[in-house]
């Protein structure tokens, strides 16, 4: 188990480096494959030795080797955050067939959170293919372990959460973007696989986190009652929390009702 967690954390560092490229290029409609990464200040291509996640940034002291321009600390932080998230996901799920699916969820959660915070959009280039990728990756455990009930629940969960957000967006278009609606279906797919309790907890936590942040902004006078805030990060945060603690929270709630 320890080796699995460490291996996934190492994979997360590498994926995090790629996510930095995704977060910068996808909102601009650029290819994530070409051209190679370069310094935005001087335009020099980044050497392979200067492209080692986290370590290169530390050795370069956060500056370009060619022009000395500062390199944002966000790059190594994204790599470290992805590594931690991958390691925690492996620790939570263990060596199961569905682990690759949830590592993919963790990866797009990092990318979409940063993009939504940066440009207030959830790009179709990431969200829409995630339906196909998620359904395909979850098909592996369904076939290998006979988890067809869970797979059907995942598909129904995607439909249910999509329908809920679609209804909210239809009722109050100013408060809910259609990007959130499309993302809801992806999250419903993953939470539905885990169980109806996780699905309910994930949806609830998304609204709870978003509402709490809105209150903080109001109290700090950083926003008004009609100010728009990116909701994708809270949806993703609520879903990830539900992956880790959704089952326990839903069971505790049921036990409270029974008591």
Strand residues, percent? under 5%
Helix content estimate: over 70%
Q: Which word captures the global form?
A: globular
Average pLDDT confidence is: 91
Structural class: mainly alpha
Total helix count? 9
Rg is 20 Å
In total, the number of strands is 0
User: How would a crystallographer describe the biggest sheet?
Assistant: none
- Low-pLDDT parts are none
Order of helices and strands: HHHHHHHHH
The span between the termini is 37 Å
What is the topology?
Blueprint: H1 2-25, H2 55-59, H3 74-93, H4 99-119, H5 124-145, H6 148-171, H7 178-194, H8 196-219, H9 232-258
Helix pairs in contact: 1-3, 1-4, 3-4, 4-5, 4-9, 5-6, 5-7, 6-7, 7-8, 7-9, 8-9
Could you give a short description of this structure?
The chain has about 260 residues and is an all-alpha fold.
Word description of this protein:
71% of the residues lie in helices and 0% in strands. It is mainly α and 259 residues long. Helix 4 (99-119) packs across helix 9, helix 5 (124-145) runs antiparallel to helix 6 and helix 6 packs antiparallel against helix 7. The longest helix is centred in the C-terminal third of the chain and has 27 residues, at 232-258. It is globular, with a radius of gyration of 20 Å. The chain starts with a helix and ends with a helix. 38% of the residues are buried.
Describe this protein with a few key phrases.
mainly alpha, 71% helix, 9 helices, single chain, 259 residues
């Amino acid at each position: 188990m320890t080796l699995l967690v460490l291996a996934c954390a190492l994979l997360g560092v590498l994926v995090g480096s790629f996510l930095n490229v995704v977060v910068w290029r996808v909102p601009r409609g650029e290819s994530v494959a070409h051209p190679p990464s370069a310094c935005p200040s001087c335009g020099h291509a980044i050497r392979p030795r200067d492209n080692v996640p986290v370590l290169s940034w530390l050795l370069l002291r956060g500056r370009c080797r060619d022009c000395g321009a500062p390199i944002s600390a966000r790059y190594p932080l994204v790599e470290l955050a992805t590594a931690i998230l991958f390691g925690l996901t492996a620790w939570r799920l263990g060596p199961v067939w569905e682990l690759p699916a949830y590592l993919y969820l963790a990866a797009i959660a990092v990318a979409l959170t940063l993009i939504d915070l940066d440009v207030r959009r959830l790009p179709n280039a990431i969200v829409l293919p995630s339906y196909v990728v998620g359904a395909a990756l979850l098909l592996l455990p369904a076939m290998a372990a006979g988890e067809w009930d869970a797979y059907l629940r995942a598909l129904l969960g995607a439909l249910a959460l999509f329908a809920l957000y679609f209804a909210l967006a239809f009722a109050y278009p100013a408060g809910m973007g259609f990007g959130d609606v499309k993302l809801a279906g992806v999250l419903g797919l993953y939470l539905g696989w885990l169980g109806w309790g996780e699905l309910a907890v994930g949806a609830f936590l998304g609204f709870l986190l978003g509402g709490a942040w809105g209150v903080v902004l109001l109290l700090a006078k950083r926003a008004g009652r009609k100010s728009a805030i990116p909701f994708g990060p809270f949806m993703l945060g609520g879903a990830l929390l539900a992956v880790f603690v959704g089952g326990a929270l839903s069971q505790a709630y049921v036990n409270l009702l029974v008591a």
